[in-house]
Automatic annotation (TrEMBL):
Residues 155-227 form the Potassium channel domain. The chain crosses the membrane at residues 33-53, 94-112, 150-169, 207-228. PANTHER family: CALCIUM-ACTIVATED POTASSIUM CHANNEL ALPHA CHAIN (PTHR10027), SLOWPOKE 2, ISOFORM D (PTHR10027:SF10). It comes from the Bacteria. It comes from Caulobacter segnis (strain ATCC 21756 / DSM 7131 / JCM 7823 / NBRC 15250 / LMG 17158 / TK0059) (Mycoplana segnis). It is a multi-pass membrane protein. GO terms for cellular component: membrane. It is found in: Membrane. This is Ion transport 2 domain protein. The lineage of its organism: Bacteria, Pseudomonadati, Pseudomonadota, Alphaproteobacteria, Caulobacterales. Signal peptide: none annotated. Keywords: Ion channel, Ion transport, Membrane, Potassium, Potassium channel, Potassium transport, Transmembrane, Transmembrane helix, Transport. GO terms for molecular function: voltage-gated potassium channel activity.
Amino acid sequence: MHRDDQRQDKGELRLRARLRALYHGASPTAVRFRYAIILIDIAIIAFFIAAPLMQRHGVTFYLIDYGVATFLALDLAARAVAHGDIKAWLRKPIVWLDLFVLATLLFPAWLFNFGFLRVLRLWTLIHSEFFWRTIGRRYDDTRVEDVTRAASSLITFVFVVTGFVYTSFAGRHEGIGGYVDALYFTVTSLTTTGYGDVTLPGVWGKLLSIAVMLGGVSLFIGLIQSILRPHKVVYQCHACGLRRHDPDAVHCKACGVLLNIPDDGV
């Protein structure tokens, strides 16, 4: 019995080490694995965006839905094992967002009205260390990361609001006849164009319109700022830990320590 326990413990340790190497390692195999996971995630996000238009297909839609749920459950379990400290892993807000997305997939009939929140998977992916450890390893330019994060926040906002408007008003108000109408309303409100051909009824409709305008404009301005922000490079100061510096910086702006930022220029 004791030997069986030892074998089980060794097996768990080997599994954890293997998953840790795949999710956090720098080997070519680990990088290819993470690229594959990210590509599957992007395909899943595309499914989430198209889901309102696919639900009419009935059985096919639910088969895809539960297939995505299976993948997401396995991925979350593997990440938890690779992390090691389950309690610390569960304290991350991004993890709870992913768990909620999983719940909407496992119980689509009960949580139908919250299905639009699945698009938050785009935000959790782009803002995860997993993504930038894989994709961002090619860049030391902070502008690339900042612009990507800002763009993902704006896109997530658009489709979450679109899903909410579609779920709450489609078929109940003559202005919102389908998903495209909800998307059209969201974009015209966000850009403050306001053609007036599609509006939401009542006080709550007006309040939602105001929230869309304020939130959308703020995110759009954030995207513009990230594009126009001065170029920085990522190089951690060994003294104070500051990670962002001017490309030609010789001394750390925070503590004055001499830097040695690699430069490929001639």
